[in-house]
Structure formats: structure tokens, C-alpha cells
């Protein structure tokens, strides 16, 4: 999917919501546990209930890998279901990969060719030769960790290195990498005060923003500092939507929560873009 196609979906749906699919068998409605593939059945119900309110889905691969080969098969069924039934949706493999060149090439092949995701999250710690293999795929996007929402982000990401905070150096350096136009960045919602500085470095890039909802991030604050003229934000919400209910009405309740966010986003877009 191209960036212009993603932007078109945002305009059509008046939404820049990304729904995170972090499926924990201990949290899903108990009646699904009797099905052959509880993870997929849960995802399918959430997707069918919310697809018209969001522009992206973000399966977190750890929540599938934890269940071995069956979990990986559930991930494959999930991405195939989205691509077959809702091909207009942007898909994100939240895998946070990052390794030396040959290994990164294999990771990229797995997510972009075999599973056919539109994008994958990566960690930039090992530098350009660990990220550029992902960037080589046409109309695929690499979403690089820039400033994350966890407490440990302050261990390294905001440290001053040669007079500049490390996350700023990462952003600046990444712009020089081959096919950097395929880059997006992860910036946590709990770091809303940093968005102004980030936009000075990457004014036109899309930012994937986790942390709104269960982690306490503010949608209005993120948009105040992070919106650009082309929206430029994908706001992820996982637990606040998918686990809003663990009863048989879970999909309907998830839709109600997604609708609240979509309506708030619609109002923000009306006033700002």
C-alpha cells in the first residue's frame, strides 16, 4: 500500500485509528476457547466489527509466537483474512525486528512476501545495514522505533550524545538511508511533549503512536503537537478496544469503543486538517 492510498482511507473514514491485535488467551471471552482456532476467531470478530472505523490493524507477533506453530498459523490466517476481505486496510506486523543485513533480509521477506504485510516495526540499534533491507521493498513501509512509550525509554533514547538527544540523532541519521521515503516512526503517546521536536526533524513522515488508552496517552495532546498537513499519524489502541468486554458481546463493545475514538478523530480532523 502506498502512503497516498493510506491517506485516502483516512479521508474516507475520517479516522486515523489503528487497532492493535494483542491476543492473550487468558483475556479473550471463554466461549471462544472451545473453537478450533480461538486466536483467529477472536481477531476475525474484532476485525469484522471495527473495519469501517479504523485504517490499520497491528498484530503484535509476540502474542502469536507465544503459542508456537499454532500461534503462527493464527497470525497467517489473520493477515490473509484482512487482505482478502478488507484490502484497503493498512497492516502492520509489530515484530520489532533488527539484525545484521542478511538476517534482516530474511525477516523482511517473511513479513513482506510470505505474510504480505504492508509494514513491519524494526529496532534501529544496529544501524543502517539492519534497516535498509526492509526499505528495499517497493510500496512496503518500515516503521522504526524512535521514542517509545515505556519507562525504560529514558535509559538510552533521551540521553545526550555529542550534544544531541539520541532519539533525535536516530531520526536525523535515518533520513540519509537508501529508500528512506519508506520510513515511518514509532513515537509513544506518553511522550506527547516531544512531538514538536520530532516534527522539526521529520515533518512529513507518518508516526505510529501507541500508548493512547490503557497506557494513559492523550489523543488530543498527541494531535496538538503531532498532526501535519497530511495528518501524518496512526494512533494505535489495543487493550482499550479489544478487551473492552470478555463476554459474548465483546465484538459489539469493541466497536463501541472504536467508534468513540473515530468520532473524536473526526472532530480533530474537522478542526485541524
From TrEMBL:
It is an enzyme of class 4 (lyase). Residues 16-254 form the Orotidine 5'-phosphate decarboxylase domain. SMART domains: OMPdecase. One of its GO terms (molecular function) is orotidine-5'-phosphate decarboxylase activity. It catalyses: orotidine 5'-phosphate + H(+) = UMP + CO2. Belongs to the OMP decarboxylase family. Type 2 subfamily. This is Orotidine 5'-phosphate decarboxylase. GO terms for biological process: 'de novo' pyrimidine nucleobase biosynthetic process; 'de novo' UMP biosynthetic process. Keywords: Decarboxylase, Lyase, Pyrimidine biosynthesis. The active site is at residue 96. Pathway: Pyrimidine metabolism; UMP biosynthesis via de novo pathway; UMP from orotate: step 2/2. It comes from the Bacteria. SUPFAM superfamilies: Ribulose-phoshate binding barrel. It holds the Pfam family OMPdecase. It comes from Flavobacterium succinicans. CDD domains: OMP_decarboxylase_like (cd04725). Its EC number is 4.1.1.23. The lineage of its organism: Bacteria, Pseudomonadati, Bacteroidota, Flavobacteriia, Flavobacteriales.
